[in-house]
Design goal:
There is one protein chain. The chain has helices spanning 23-29, 63-68; strands spanning 2-6, 12-16, 49-52, 80-82, 94-97. Strand 1 (2-6) and strand 2 form a beta hairpin. The protein has a 5-stranded mixed beta sheet. The protein is built from 2 helices and 5 strands. The structure holds FE2/S2 (inorganic) cluster. FE2/S2 (inorganic) cluster binds next to loops. FE2/S2 (inorganic) cluster (FES) binds at residues 24, 37-39, 41, 43-48, 68, 82, 84. InterPro entries: 2Fe-2S_ferredoxin-like_sf, 2Fe-2S_ferredoxin-type, Adrenodoxin-like, Adrenodoxin_Fe-S_BS, Beta-grasp_dom_sf. One of its GO terms (biological process) is P450-containing electron transport chain. Belongs to the adrenodoxin/putidaredoxin family.
Length: 103
Protein backbone atom coordinates (compact mmCIF):
# COMPACT_ATOMS: atom_id res chain seq x y z
CA UNK A 1 0.00 0.00 0.00
CA UNK A 2 1.09 3.60 -0.40
CA UNK A 3 1.62 5.78 2.63
CA UNK A 4 1.41 9.53 2.12
CA UNK A 5 2.82 11.89 4.72
CA UNK A 6 1.84 15.54 4.47
CA UNK A 7 4.09 17.86 6.43
CA UNK A 8 2.99 20.94 8.34
CA UNK A 9 4.07 23.11 5.39
CA UNK A 10 1.89 21.11 2.99
CA UNK A 11 4.67 19.17 1.28
CA UNK A 12 3.79 15.55 0.55
CA UNK A 13 5.95 12.46 0.64
CA UNK A 14 4.45 9.23 -0.70
CA UNK A 15 6.22 5.90 -0.20
CA UNK A 16 5.39 2.23 -0.64
CA UNK A 17 4.76 0.36 2.58
CA UNK A 18 4.35 -3.29 3.48
CA UNK A 19 1.35 -4.87 5.14
CA UNK A 20 2.13 -5.50 8.79
CA UNK A 21 4.57 -2.62 9.11
CA UNK A 22 3.57 0.46 11.04
CA UNK A 23 3.17 3.95 9.64
CA UNK A 24 6.11 4.93 11.88
CA UNK A 25 8.40 2.13 10.63
CA UNK A 26 7.56 3.02 7.05
CA UNK A 27 8.50 6.66 7.66
CA UNK A 28 11.78 5.83 9.38
CA UNK A 29 12.82 3.31 6.72
CA UNK A 30 12.24 5.88 4.00
CA UNK A 31 13.76 8.83 5.83
CA UNK A 32 10.48 10.74 5.94
CA UNK A 33 10.86 13.89 8.00
CA UNK A 34 8.30 14.76 10.65
CA UNK A 35 8.29 11.53 12.64
CA UNK A 36 11.02 11.11 15.27
CA UNK A 37 10.03 7.85 17.00
CA UNK A 38 12.56 8.16 19.80
CA UNK A 39 11.46 4.98 21.57
CA UNK A 40 11.44 2.84 18.45
CA UNK A 41 7.81 1.88 18.72
CA UNK A 42 7.45 0.81 22.34
CA UNK A 43 4.73 3.35 23.08
CA UNK A 44 6.81 5.40 25.48
CA UNK A 45 7.85 8.58 23.65
CA UNK A 46 4.91 10.14 21.76
CA UNK A 47 7.32 11.53 19.12
CA UNK A 48 5.57 9.56 16.37
CA UNK A 49 2.40 11.64 16.60
CA UNK A 50 0.35 11.99 13.40
CA UNK A 51 -3.06 13.25 12.40
CA UNK A 52 -4.95 10.61 10.41
CA UNK A 53 -6.72 11.91 7.30
CA UNK A 54 -10.46 11.46 6.96
CA UNK A 55 -10.13 8.90 4.14
CA UNK A 56 -7.96 6.61 6.25
CA UNK A 57 -9.29 4.20 8.86
CA UNK A 58 -7.42 2.38 11.60
CA UNK A 59 -8.70 0.24 14.46
CA UNK A 60 -9.52 2.12 17.65
CA UNK A 61 -6.67 2.91 19.99
CA UNK A 62 -5.94 1.21 23.28
CA UNK A 63 -5.82 3.04 26.60
CA UNK A 64 -2.03 3.37 26.76
CA UNK A 65 -1.87 5.08 23.37
CA UNK A 66 -4.67 7.37 24.49
CA UNK A 67 -2.72 8.27 27.64
CA UNK A 68 0.51 8.86 25.70
CA UNK A 69 -1.27 11.20 23.30
CA UNK A 70 -1.75 13.60 26.20
CA UNK A 71 2.01 14.18 26.12
CA UNK A 72 2.58 15.12 22.48
CA UNK A 73 4.59 18.24 21.58
CA UNK A 74 1.76 19.59 19.44
CA UNK A 75 -1.62 19.27 21.15
CA UNK A 76 -3.68 16.27 20.17
CA UNK A 77 -6.79 16.53 18.01
CA UNK A 78 -9.67 14.12 17.52
CA UNK A 79 -7.75 12.43 14.68
CA UNK A 80 -4.44 12.15 16.55
CA UNK A 81 -2.69 8.78 16.73
CA UNK A 82 0.75 7.45 17.53
CA UNK A 83 2.01 6.12 14.23
CA UNK A 84 3.94 3.22 15.75
CA UNK A 85 0.54 1.74 16.63
CA UNK A 86 -0.87 2.07 13.11
CA UNK A 87 -0.27 -1.11 11.13
CA UNK A 88 -0.72 -1.22 7.38
CA UNK A 89 -3.35 -3.76 6.36
CA UNK A 90 -3.52 -5.42 2.95
CA UNK A 91 -3.49 -2.94 0.08
CA UNK A 92 -5.25 -0.15 1.97
CA UNK A 93 -3.55 3.17 1.22
CA UNK A 94 -2.94 5.49 4.13
CA UNK A 95 -2.71 9.26 4.47
CA UNK A 96 -1.51 11.13 7.53
CA UNK A 97 -0.40 14.64 8.42
CA UNK A 98 2.69 15.15 10.53
CA UNK A 99 2.71 17.86 13.20
CA UNK A 100 4.91 20.94 13.15
CA UNK A 101 7.21 19.43 15.76
CA UNK A 102 7.58 16.18 17.73
CA UNK A 103 9.74 17.47 20.59
FE1 LIG B 1 7.58 6.07 20.59
FE2 LIG B 1 5.55 5.62 18.92
S1 LIG B 1 7.65 5.54 18.50
S2 LIG B 1 5.46 6.07 21.04
Amino acid sequence: PSVTYTAFDGSETAVEGFAGDSVMETAVRNGVAGIVAECGGSLSCATCHVFVCADTVFPAMEDLEDDMLDGTAVDREDNSRLSCQLKLVGDADVRVLTPETQV
